[in-house]
Amino acid sequence: MYDYIFCGGGLSTLLLLHEMNDQLIDKKTLVIDNDEYKNNPYLSYWSDEPTIFDEFRIASWNKVQCSGRRPDSTDPYTIGLLKKEELLNSIRKTLDNFPITWSSAKVQQIKSSEKTCKVYTDAGVEKAKLVFDSCVDIRPLFPDPKESIVLSGYELLVESDSEVFDDNTAKFYIQLPKTGTFGYMLPLSKKIALLESASFQPRLDNNDRKMLLQYLVKTYPKARFRLTHEQLGMIPLGFPPPRLSGSRHILIGQKRGLVKISAGYGIMSILRESKRIAAILADGKIPKPVRIQDRRYQIMDRYFLKLVRDNPNKADRIIRRSLQKQSITTNFALIDETLQTTKLAYTMIKSLPFLF
Ligand SMILES: Cc1cc2nc3c(=O)[nH]c(=O)nc-3n(C[C@H](O)[C@H](O)[C@H](O)COP(=O)(O)OP(=O)(O)OC[C@H]3O[C@@H](n4cnc5c(N)ncnc54)[C@H](O)[C@@H]3O)c2cc1C
Hints:
The protein is of the alpha/beta class and 356 residues long. It has eight helices and 17 strands. The strands form three sheets. Strands 1, 2, 8, 9, 10, 11 and 17 form a seven-stranded mixed β-sheet that branches. A seven-stranded mixed β-sheet has the order 6-5-13-14-15-12-16, sandwiched between helices. Strand 14 and strand 15 form a beta hairpin. Flavin-adenine dinucleotide binds next to helix 1, strand 3, strand 16 and helix 4.
């Protein structure tokens, strides 16, 4: 019998273990991961305070240029980019001295009763007082198949033969020829940049690669580019599943509803929620199985999700208008859910008249 079982050993599990730290000393903990879903090497984030992510940054920016606008300062936020594996490996090393068992198995089912929770895997059954679940492929599934929507994108790492990029400025919302799809670019140096596309659609689209390359050639006609990495990726978006197997089955990570529906961003909200959950556990209490989202933002996200499903082009236009009409810091606060009610209402009004 374990005190804690973590199903899935990705970002949310490691951040929570890191936050729990000393609480783990006298506890028996099991982490189960089948290593199947390691699909995104780079993670970008923004923050207006120092975070654990900063020491893993391979680049950072204090200015953002959105299509058709002059570069805008991100102050007090800094945007950073890190390599996911470096972060995870480093956190894992800090946990070496704790009584944690790391198991490579596939979780198949979780069943919670009043006092314990059972985890069924392809290697047997384990029991714990509390189970933390970040496995999107087991019940309750995430996203709910009825609400399923993905943010898909193509990622290119390019190297130029000359110094063409402004490495202080991230470019957000690069207009691409396919409707409902936009690009963004994070220059790692004057010669190297990460270029990505993003679109809300239920399938992955390989054509984005061509559009991104055309953008590079058109924008920097004198340079020649070499591709050093490319990848197609997709982020499932949605609300946390409403039905769980019981109160000892706690969802974490994207399954807890921590990836923002309008942006696909997650690591900062996962970090904030890890701190909150660790504090609740330190008080000897059991955290709520899912995140309780601020009602105003829940209404907004539900509306956005519906719009993405019914008319992805309109959703794309809302994002474009919001980035063009408001400062980048307002956009960050909107995604972080930290805007005051009056500013939130004003922001919504500014984004909508164009459409209806
Ligand atoms: C392509 C892509 C790009 C992204 N870019 C960004 C970004 O730039 N910035 C940002 O903030 N967020 C980004 N995200 C979102 C971010 O990756 C997630 O928010 C974060 O990784 C979620 O953490 P998690 O623990 O929920 O999931 P993960 O980190 O994916 O961890 C889940 C773990 O569970 C394991 N697992 C799953 N099912 C089972 C099972 N049945 N049995 C055993 N193990 C299982 C997997 O192997 C995995 O290790 C991106 C996501 C994707 C897919």
